[in-house]
Structure of D,D-heptose 1,7-bisphosphate phosphatase:
Amino acid sequence: MAVSITVDAAAAGSGPAAGLAPAVFIDKDGTLIHDLPYNVDPARVRLREDAGPALARLQQAGYRLVLITNQAGLAHQKFEEEALQPVWDILASLLGLYGVTLDAIYYCPHHPQGSHPEFGRGCDCRKPAPGLLLRAARKHQLDLARSWFIGDILDDIEAGHRAGCRTVLLDVGAETEWRNSPLRRPDRVAASLTEAAADILAAAALAGATMEMAE
Ligand SMILES: [Mg+2]
Ligand SMILES: [Zn+2]
């Protein structure tokens, strides 16, 4: 998207924000893994077929990889917080087969209608709110303007844009409502994670070329 590239080029005087790394934020259910609602059984966790190689390309290109997931099952008391650790562990094992390490995992345990005494409330971190991305950016010193969010529904896209990132919609049929607004319009639409990774790397290459021309 030309506007974003121009913003990158405009910052070229001092280079990309000093010391800050770009990230690719990734939704979990339906994007990184096949979606089984409220599943916390590690034996049933399946990576999307091309997730390993696609994330390996992004990590090798210098992107931090940060998982961003709504876990309303906690608010609805479908499972306990401790049940998530085996899921993170199996994800680490499965991605490790491809040499990929997630830099961080952020989840929102809340839901406004949840029955859980602590988690049954509104919050600033349930996507489409950007709270998880903003927390990740502060903690891990991420350059949000050079970062991307890959997700399979428009709430992911909106969260990415609210945080100041660009976005790729992995269009695999998960989005069914298509409530539209400028914030919910993805910068790219991809049919696979392979394509999403290629789109992100192509945009970065183009931004690099534009920065060179501006110098
Ligand atoms: Mg999803
Ligand atoms: Zn939350």
Remarks:
- The beta strands are 23-27, 64-70, 104-108, 148-151, 166-170, 188-190.
- The CA atoms of residues 92 and 112 lie 30 Å apart.
- The first strand starts at residue 23 and ends at 27.
- Helices lie at 2-10, 51-60, 72-75, 84-96, 131-140, 154-162, 193-214.
